[in-house]
Amino acid sequence: MNLFGLRTACQTRSGWNDPAFASNWDLWLNESLREHARVSPWQGLEDLIDIVSTGSEYLVLPGHVDSIISILNVTTNSPVRRTGDWDRTQPFVYAQRTTGDVFEYDLIGVVPTIGDPAGYVVVRGSHASDTQNLYVTGLVANSGASGSALALSARTLSITATGISPQTLSTLFTRFTSIGKATNSQGEFFFNDAGASMAPLAWLGKYDDNSAYKRIQLLYKPAAQTTFRIRVRNKPEPLIDDAQAPHPAVKSDFLINHALHLFYASQEQLQKSGWQAQKASKILADETAKDSNHDEPHSQISPHLNYDPDAPYYWQ
User: Fold this and answer.
1) Are 37 and 251 spatial neighbours (Cβ–Cβ below 8 Å)?
2) Which residue, among 18, 46, 5, 64, has the nearest Cα to 231 in the 3D structure?
3) Quick count: other Cβ atoms within 10 Å of Cβ 44?
């Protein structure tokens, strides 16, 4: 079922078929698609990536990563498990950022760039017709006399994209806190650090609202050139066009019921929302059991039993 059919089903079942409300259904359907990928991923979503540490205690994952499944320290051939609360459980190594063999990690938020810029930032699009506004917010260093101004202040800069022609940001940022755009674009946008030989700094996909990279913190702090092999689950491609359909493994009934669950929750109709959530969960649970039962038409196995019909109490 394509996006138009999914949206129509949601409108019919809920009674909310106002064309002005259609974008909300698209949003909830894409949230449901991501939930399907999280609970019941299909083939092709998972991948292995290798990241070589520069000696920092942080690793920044590529923008296409949605979640982490496992991490292996290839250098020491040992697993890296997720944990946290190091400031309480291991305060010394946490405070001192001690270097050693990495055996634990923790998610430490989402950042808009791979790292902090060393100079002015250059932005370039991949499609000539992209001329919409881009918005960047970050910190800049003040040049006031000592004691007369704050060391850093926040600035927001609006940029009118010039397609494939590169342009340099007029503000010298020392750190970015957000990079985004208001509408979908025809292509992608690339941000490069002119102060570091045009090294990649951030990326905005054509369907992305903002640049976002998952960041993890490592314990202990790894030595430079330590290699980490990370099994990740990638973000599913969002449904944008009416004729676009999700992956064949995605259950349309799940998307519809889960989108209705989100709709009723937004309307504070919590009982209806709970019913729809239960229906959506059962759809994936039934399909999982069906797969484990050799794809039988019903999610159960009726085993063949050896029995004696003449045995006592058989008919009771």
Assistant:
1) no
2) 46
3) 10
Amino acid letter, 282: K
CA–CA gap between residue 301 and residue 316 (Å, rounded): 23
**28: nearest Cα among 277, 290, 287:** 277
Residues 264 and 279: their CA atoms lie apart, in Å, by 14
Where b means 16+ CB within 10 Å and e means fewer, 105-122 reads: beeeeebbbbbebeeebb
Longest dimension (CA), the chain: 102
**Single-letter amino acid code for the residue at 89:** T
222 DSSP 8-state letter: P
Cα(300)–Cα(109) distance, integer angstroms: 42
Predicted TM-score of the model (pTM): 0.74
Say how far apart CA 304 and CA 306 lie, in whole Å. Answer: 7
Per-residue model confidence as pLDDT tens digits over 210-219: 999 999 999 8
- Start-end of H helices in 40-175: 86-89, 91-96
Residue 156: strand pairing partners: 137
Q: Are 114 and 234 in contact (CB under 8 A)?
A: no
DSSP state of 185: -
Find out whether 175 and 155 touch, Cβ atoms under 8 Å: no
Helix locations, 169-213, DSSP H: none
DSSP per position, 230-259: EEEEEPPPPP-STT----TTS-HHHHHHHH
- Interatomic CA distance for residues 104 and 79, integer angstroms: 8
Separation CA 109–CA 124 (nearest Å)? 26
3-class DSSP assignment, residue 273: helix
Closest CA to 119 of 140, 96, 95: 140
* 216-264 pLDDT, tens digit each: 999 899 999 999 999 999 989 899 999 999 999 999 999 999 999 999 9
> What's the count of helices (H) and strands (E) in the chain, helices before strands?
6, 14
The answer to whether residues 40 and 287 touch, using CB atoms and an 8 Å cutoff, is yes
What is the C-alpha separation between 63 and 214, in angstroms, rounded?
A: 7
